[in-house]
Amino acid sequence: MATYAIGDIQGCLREFDALLERLNFSSEDELWLAGDLINRGPDSLQLLRRVKDLSSQCQIVLGNHDLHFLAILFGGHKPSGKDTFADLLQAEDVFEIGHWLRKQKLVHQAKGHIMVHAGIPGFWSAVQALSYAAQVEAVIGQDAGDVMHAGAVDYKEFFAKMYGNEPPCWDEALGGMDRLRIITNYFTRMRYVDATCAMNFAEKGGLADTPSGFVPWFAQTPSEDRAEKILFGHWASLNGVTHSTAHVALDTGCVWGRYLTAYCLETEEVTRQAAY
């Protein structure tokens, strides 16, 4: 049995299937998918159906593009001009897919590894990261008939109010949507951070493009109890390069004409499928 972590697929179904064939992926193997399953690529609907069929062999964390789809479906937002999943929104099984997708995680930990879409702030331990992720997961993964306590946020409200860059940095005293939003932003949108772990959302380049006063999030000194290797996607401009043995960048820009990458947890072997 092998465990393969794969970066941002973004609707590139042909490359995903070709990569699984290159891996000789079998019913005994397991997939870890690092979010952004959909959008920008050509086959978001069929990709989600394919991954949903593989659910018993998959661990999935949500990315910002996955959450964007859910915000349209459940939060009342409109698609943007860059979105490429109109067929998904019009599909007869769109709500079945959407309810399945919102039950997925923000952070997954097992086998000496942690997978997250964008990253984990350096001052959060693994225990804290999983605890904060669970707080958001409990909201977005609610059963439709759940009885809400007074003042609690339900999943439709979360998706309606999810967008935004505020608050700028973490404070344990935060509550409500402010708390949920910054946790979500750290896990699904973070690239560069400053000394307070405020995020820079404007710059999307690589290591050489790091803005003054900021560092890549994985350059922060991590919490002492975090021994796991972190697997993440989201940052295609890195093209798989972190210069850190403790961090594996999985997004190698398949949707931009480069590669879809798989990393084997057991052997550390990297397999790449070129974009068609």
Q: What do these coordinates show?
A:
This protein has 276 residues and is of the alpha/beta class. The protein has a single domain, classed as Purple Acid Phosphatase, chain A, domain 2 (4-Layer Sandwich). The chain has helices at residues 13-22, 44-53, 64-75, 86-89, 94-101, 126-140, 155-161, 176-189, and strands spanning 3-6, 30-33, 58-60, 107-110, 113-116, 192-193, 199-200, 215-216, 229-232, 247-249, 259-264, 270-274. The strands form three sheets. It has a five-stranded mixed sheet, with helices on one face. It has a four-stranded mixed sheet with strand order 4-5-9-10, covered by helices on one side. A three-stranded antiparallel sheet has the order 7-6-8, with no helix packed on it.
List the helices and strands and how they pair.
Elements: E1 3-6, H1 13-22, E2 30-33, H2 44-53, E3 58-60, H3 64-75, H4 86-89, H5 94-101, E4 107-110, E5 113-116, H6 126-140, H7 155-161, H8 176-189, E6 192-193, E7 199-200, E8 215-216, E9 229-232, E10 247-249, E11 259-264, E12 270-274
Parallel strand pairs: 1-2, 2-3, 5-9, 9-10
Antiparallel strand pairs: 1-11, 4-5, 6-7, 6-8, 11-12
Helix pairs in contact: 3-5, 3-7, 6-8
